[in-house]
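Why show two proteins at once? Because comparison is the fastest way to build intuition. When a single record is shown, students tend to memorize it. When two are placed side by side, the eye starts asking what differs. So, the first record is below.
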Amino acid sequence: MYLKRIGFIVSVLFFIACDNSGSSSKQLLPSPSNNNNYKIIMAKGGSSFAIKADDSLWAWGLNTNGQLGDGTTLNRRTPVKIMDSVSSVSSVSFSPISTGIMAMKYTMAIKTDGSLWAWGDAEYDRPLAPGKTFAVDRLRPNPVKIMESVSSVSASNGSRMAIKTYGSLCA
């Protein structure tokens, strides 16, 4: 519970004090446009994700491992569009023993067509199925397609599992 509180505090502090220009702002929530229409929101390890009503995925916050999926490792103060046709998003964070602060490693999304996508840092992770890892050179700041026909995905540091649309489990 203590580490979850620290992760939340780090997320809030990011919006208060961090941006790429070095300036400080007290804006806690981003306001990219007047037409937000968010239907799902997820925040972990200083990074935030939202799926809008049109099923587009947006991300902002810390991005040191490419976990936002925008092709960079730059922190983002305002949401950037990652991809269209997304039905769910999941992320994996870890807590280094030296700091005890949660940091995000990688992110996965399931698109409305059932395809599973992943991006970020998978240094200590393993593939969902033989030959289906996205960690070819470890850091992937762009989404990489992992597999088709996925209905659900769950991940933690060191493992991830997916349930295929026909009910089989990939671990």
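Second record. Ask yourself what differs from the first in the token line.
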Amino acid sequence: MTKGKYILLAAIVILSGFAGGLSAGLVFRAQPAVAGDEATIEKDMSAKQLNIVDKDGNLRLLLSTDDDGSPAIAMYDKDGKARSVFTVSAAGDTVITFNDGNGKLRVAMGVTGEGGPEILMKSKSGAKSFSAP
């Protein structure tokens, strides 16, 4: 093979590679997934538990259901302690609790399944400081 034929063959190979890459890019064009893009928003998502974490991977928010189907939302502080929990029991009781930095219950309020309100407040030592009714 002469030098001219090698140059022609190399040019054909390079152009063929370019044409193949271009046509593959046109045929198999990927659509980027962009947050907020209507085309990529799922209409439904099902899960028994959803963990929301901070930038370091620490659990900060938990949405879950118990085995009996009771839903719960728990919010955690930077140290991983549950600070607030919102639940609805299988019996229909709705309760929200607030814990101190040591994880001790300080305030609980809710509504019973029958519609009666309840409030409980505890001191730092854990003693009941207020309750109603």
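One difference worth noting in the second protein: Residues 37 and 122 are 47 Å apart (CA to CA).
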